[in-house]
């Protein structure tokens, strides 16, 4: 999850399995869900149990990778990505481009999340 953007179908399925496990899913019967999932997945400080939405968690981990590229431009990964994808400019201005690798598309998804929180 820290290097690749997981497809929505996988994160939705993982979230669904987490909900089923929590509610005691059984093949022949379904249990009553006493509390809405939104409330359970809210932060503990807000009265929830703090379950993570795996799609948001995946994007947060990818944003962390983007932050590492910004903070350490001399690292090997940063230099390779700069040479291949944004040699003429800065990382924050980089575009996905034509035919990018899956890793670059994932990092760009994390960069969009990171840009929304930068000041």
Structural write-up:
With 119 residues, the chain is mainly alpha-helical. It has one domain. Helix content is 53%, strand content 0%. It has five helices and no strands. The longest helix is centred in the middle third of the chain and has 18 residues, at 54-71.
Give the topology, please.
Layout lengths: L7 H15 L14 H4 L13 H18 L4 H10 L16 H16 L2
Helix pairs in contact: 3-5
Summarize the structure.
With 119 residues, the chain is mainly alpha-helical.
Keywords:
53% helix; mainly alpha
Quaternary state of the chains: single chain
Number of domains: 1
From the alpha carbons, calculate the radius of gyration and give it in angstroms.
19 Å
Average residue-wise pLDDT: 87
Based on CA inertia axes, which overall geometry fits? elongated
Report helical residue fraction. 40-55%
Low-confidence runs of at least 5 consecutive residues? none
Strand content: under 5%
| Total beta strands | 0
> What's the story with the biggest beta sheet?
none
Secondary-structure element string: HHHHH
Judged by helices, strands and strand pairing, the structural class is mainly alpha
Alpha-carbon distance between the two ends: 26 Å
Figure out the total of helices.
5
């Amino acid at each position: 999850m820290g290097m690749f953007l997981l497809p929505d179908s996988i994160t939705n399925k993982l979230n669904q399995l987490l909900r089923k496990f929590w509610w005691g899913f059984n093949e022949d019967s379904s249990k009553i869900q006493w509390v809405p999932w939104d409330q359970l997945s809210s932060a503990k400080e807000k009265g929830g149990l703090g379950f993570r939405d795996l799609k948001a968690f995946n994007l947060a981990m990818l944003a962390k990778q983007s932050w590492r590229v910004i903070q350490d431009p001399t690292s090997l990964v940063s230099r390779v990505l700069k040479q291949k994808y944004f040699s003429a400019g800065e990382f924050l201005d980089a575009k996905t481009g034509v035919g990018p690798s899956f890793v670059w598309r994932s990092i760009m998804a994390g960069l969009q999340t990171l840009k929304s929180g930068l000041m």
